[in-house]
């Protein structure tokens, strides 16, 4: 079983991730609380990096369940029903100048960009947390960055930077 | 002929996200020095990353609300577990006592 102190040390980061996903302190804290309660009742979560990946994965799953269960697409500031699009702005830190880059992203794009760009996860860890391949993760990052859907070949996962003459 | 490196889109993302090793970073930088459009895209992505970090970083420094403090949550969880145990114990004990009483009454009849 993971030590309480290990989980406690990760709590502020999980809370930040939840805030980014939901755009709300209250909903984000609810989500964090659910994930932490699940963690302290679970066995086999591991320690260190494995524990971190597991906690982020639990929180991601809880959020997907929450979003897919929303009864009203306009609830919580306009989240679309299901895991399709999330338009919820960062309600308590509104970007009135339209500079909130998270506002127009889909849920899966938001998850990917938050894990990599804000939480500092490696591609390997982020792909593991989201349950996707490295190539799929980069495709989500590309869309989150406003790039058109790249061709699969252009996102070859590990064949980058080969020498040509 | 001078060897050059072919930089693909995935490499640009990896560069912005700090996923490349030193030699590959140099190769991407050399590419960006020659490709203004790619350099502008990479700069835009880095700007987006920095904006999100600046926006959310303070959250991790906020004082945690009581309901997110692990020691408190663990104590509440333990109390709940104890409550469930006592309920189950009481149920089994009550059932056993009931069976004993009914058995005793039947034996008297």
Helix-strand layout with pairing:
The complex is a heterodimer of chains A (165) and B (109).
Chain A: H1 4-22, H2 25-40, H3 48-68, H4 75-78, H5 107-118, H6 123-130, H7 134-144, E1 162-164
Chain B: E1 4-6, H1 9-16, H2 22-34, H3 36-56, H4 70-108
Helix pairs in contact in B: 1-3, 2-3
Short account of what is shown:
The complex is a heterodimer of chains A (165) and B (109). Helix content of chain A is 55%, strand content 2%.
Largest sheet of chain A: none
Instruction: Please give the domain count of chain A.
Output: 1
- Radius of gyration of chain A, in Å, reads 17 Å
Q: Roughly what is the average pLDDT of chain B, rounded to an integer?
A: 85
Q: β content of chain A, as a range?
A: under 5%
Shape annotation of chain B: rod-shaped
Q: Regions of chain A with pLDDT < 50 over 5+ consecutive residues?
A: 73-94
Tell me the helix content of chain B.
Answer: over 70%
Structural class of chain A: mainly alpha
For the record, what CATH class of chain A applies? Mainly Alpha
Number of domains of chain B: 2
What portion of residues of chain B belong to β-strands?
Answer: under 5%
What are the segments of chain B in which pLDDT stays under 50 over at least 5 consecutive residues? none
Q: Give the terminus-to-terminus CA distance of chain B.
A: 110 Å
Report what the structure shows.
- The complex is a heterodimer of chains A (165) and B (109).
- Chain A is an all-alpha fold.
- Chain A has one domain: Butyryl-CoA Dehydrogenase, subunit A, domain 3 (Up-down Bundle).
- Chain A has 7 helices and 1 strand.
- In chain A, helix 5 runs antiparallel to helix 6.
- Chain A is globular and about 45 Å long.
- The N and C termini of chain A lie far apart (54 Å).
- The longest helix of chain B has 39 residues.
- In chain B, helix 1 packs parallel to helix 3.
- Chain B is rod-shaped, with a radius of gyration of 33 Å.
- Chain B is 74% helix and 3% strand.
- The model of chain B has no long low-confidence stretch (mean pLDDT 85).
- With 109 residues, chain B is mostly helical.
- Chain B folds into 2 domains: 62 residues; 45 residues.
- Chain B has 4 helices and 1 strand, in the order E-H-H-H-H.
- Chains A and B meet through helix 1, helix 2, helix 5, helix 7 and strand 1 of A and strand 1, helix 1, helix 2, helix 3 and helix 4 of B.
